């Protein structure tokens, strides 16, 4: 079972470079998310999507862009990388049924990004 | 706004010891509460959850009870094993189709034989 797959796992970027973190899920989930995890901190939501063609900002969206052209894919674009974007990035997905229930969110294994 | 405050780590225990990791929250509305676990080099995995007051979530010997009166969701396990060594995150999520989670800072747990 693949679940949530994100690539690359590790990347070193120079200041000012751009890159895309890829994320795909095979569970037909409608919700997808990008989080970042800084050392000693909890996860912060960057962007999320409630379905193909719909995206919205989370808590820390500056310096990032996303798109959701298909249900399966939710790439995260970093434009003009800065040292403050050095972090571990997690893609996640869930199926929301539109009712109360605390639906489970499934996470990918993470992408370690260093900006130097 | 919503927030989660977690017991600071790291926590080191001997095998078979009793574990408590404290978690308190503030939230508007009626959140669901979660504990996620992150093993070394892996992504987060749901450990347990509770969706309303007085609910008890349990899994793999871990338990947590949703206490609305004290706004708490403390994680407990009666006898920890070396394989429980991981980082544990408390989180809250608001329901009704919007599952964005607010996470605590995580507690690193190390179990020594």
| Oligomeric composition of the shown chains | heterodimer
Low-confidence stretches of chain B: none
**Helix-strand topology string of chain A:** EEEEEEEEEEE
Low-confidence stretches of chain A: none
How many strands, what sense, and barrel or not for the largest sheet of chain B?
Answer: 6 strands, mixed
Q: Structural class of the secondary structure composition of chain B?
A: mainly beta
Euclidean distance between termini CA atoms of chain A: 35 Å
Work out the helicity level of chain B: under 10%
Number of strands of chain B: 12
Average residue-wise pLDDT of chain B:
91
Q: What does the model show?
A:
The complex is a heterodimer of chains A (116) and B (113). In chain A, 0% of the residues lie in helices and 48% in strands. Chain A contains no helices and eleven strands. Chain A starts with a strand and ends with a strand. The model of chain A has no long low-confidence stretch (mean pLDDT 91). In chain B, 0% of the residues lie in helices and 50% in strands. The relative contact order of chain B is 0.34. The model of chain B has no long low-confidence stretch (mean pLDDT 91). The chains are: A mainly beta (116), B mainly beta (113). Chains A and B meet through strand 5, strand 9 and strand 10 of A and strand 5, strand 6, strand 10 and strand 11 of B.
Quick recap of the structure?
The complex is a heterodimer of chains A (116) and B (113). Chain A is mainly beta.
